[in-house]
Model the fold of this input.
Amino acid sequence: MMDISDLDESKIKQLSALIKTLYLESGAFMLFECEPTDRYLEGMLLAKIAMLDKNEAVDLVAIDQGMVVGECEIIRVAGGYSAKVGIFLDRNWRGRGVGKELLERALDKALRIGIGEVRAEVDASNGRAMAFFLNRGFEDIGFEDIAGRRIRAFRLLL
Done:
């Protein structure tokens, strides 16, 4: 049975491994400041936990049989009203409603901490992810070029 809970230190190593796997599978489409080593990812996740305590972020993980299989993060932009969302999901769990459940719960928590607008940035070649956000009420707000990649941006007002 799947459980969804807040990110905490006990889940960092598993989530770090999932993100690294997804990075390698994606052909490096995920944007990181440097190569996402275990140490880098674990440090990034610890910093995110500190943001949770200050209501600067929401971070939920999906757990099945003790293993982290997905994550939805919503991170406030510059302490303001807006935030960016990211969803990471094990390949075996895609298309099973896990991403939808993570997103719905994360959006509810984001609204409760005063976030009123959420943006998603998706690689323009990822039609499945673009459809995911459109099907959840996000508005397509056009293309951006980020780090030499064509990105499609979406926005949802809460």
